[in-house]
Amino acid sequence: MKEPHQTPRNKRGPFGLSRNVFFLGLTSFFNDLSSEMVYPLLPTFITQYLGASVFFLGLLEGLGDSIASLLQIFVGWFSDRVRRRKGLVVGGYSVSGLARGALVVVGTPWQALIAWFINRVGKGIRTAPRDALISHSCNEKERGRAFGYHRSMDHSGALLGSALASVLLAAFYIEYKALFAIAFIPAVLGVLLLTFGIRDKGRTECSQAQEVPRLRLSLKPFDTRFRWLLLTVFIFTLGNSSDAFLLLRASQGSAIPLALLPALWGVLHVVKAAISIPGGALSDRIGRRRVILAGWGTYVLAYTGFALIAGPAWIWFLFVFYGFYYVTEAVLKAFVADLVAPELRGTAYGIFNFTISVTVLPASLMMGFLWDSAGPKYAFLVGAGLAFLAILIFIAAIKDG
């Protein structure tokens, strides 16, 4: 899809990126610094500190994403309609930061579920308009690099957050809730940078675009390849349960101590951050399809490894290997922009993110149920099988944009 009047309005900022892309990356850095100080400890906080079951962990992980995903379509469409993205993005990041801060005062599993649910609602509010704002703040040939930069900053913040959590746990013997309180500080900083750093593109973002139609749950306005992409993403994500189960596998099956769980999580984010920009740029050169298939193939092999292999050394290796799968995050978002007209991108990202998020609840509940009833081996093998099915459909039905 060609962009109307794209180059003149996107002034270059640091690292050759537009101002909006640069500051959205910084915001994501600080938000994930905050989030990943909390997230690696969430499985043990829920199952050990609060005494909940693995199935409840799956409910907590899946419910927030699934319900919040309903917001993605509406918020994406609304941002297309009004062509004002910034307020929604700021509001979404603010809600998430406040909800994570509320973990400091929870005392029961259900209170933790409510707090985490609200955190995910914030993600549902911000994601589609943020992705649309990124796509309109770079030209067509830089789209993979722009989304790659954003994901790289996201993962770099997660790496620093995980490392900081490990240091605080190992060196200062800090407890869960004190760590959650410290994690609230970078969340506030990220919202301040977002508020004062980015500028809404307004109606200049689509100066030749048609009026956005009223919201309908219909895929008729979209390219056939976009519809097939949604189907394959749905099947893949149905087998892609929360990464919290990887941390649980490490702590239970391979005896990784609590203080090293954030460090293990940080190693995963080293790989994520390292591959995001070159992976996105590679997709600009050789096509999105090849990079997506390579990433999904990595996922199948990694989940098979988590099913069949135990031991601390293997777990560290599998976390590193699994990180290469995340090259698909930025590339899939760039692929959506390739397949969808500019005036419908907010709606398209809403539908795309909804398709991913709506499967999180059944995927996580299925993983928790299989884990409790048949063991982690079969739970991970089912996930690998669904991902392999998605690959076969993708190969048969989808070509590059």
TrEMBL record:
A Pfam family matched in the record: MFS_1
Topology class, membrane: Multi-pass membrane protein
Location of this chain's protein in the cell: Cell membrane
MF terms in GO: transmembrane transporter activity
Ranges that cross the membrane: 54-78, 157-174, 180-198, 226-248, 254-275, 296-327, 347-371, 378-398
Domain Major facilitator superfamily (MFS) profile: 20-401
Family annotation (CDD domains): MFS_MJ1317_like
Cited SUPFAM superfamilies: MFS general substrate transporter
Recorded coiled-coil stretches: none
InterPro entries to which the protein is assigned, alphabetical: MFS, MFS_dom, MFS_trans_sf, Sugar_transporter_CS
Keyword annotations from UniProtKB, A to Z: Membrane, Transmembrane, Transmembrane helix
GO cellular component: plasma membrane
Protein name, entry field: Major facilitator superfamily (MFS) profile domain-containing protein
Organism of this sequence: Candidatus Solincola sediminis
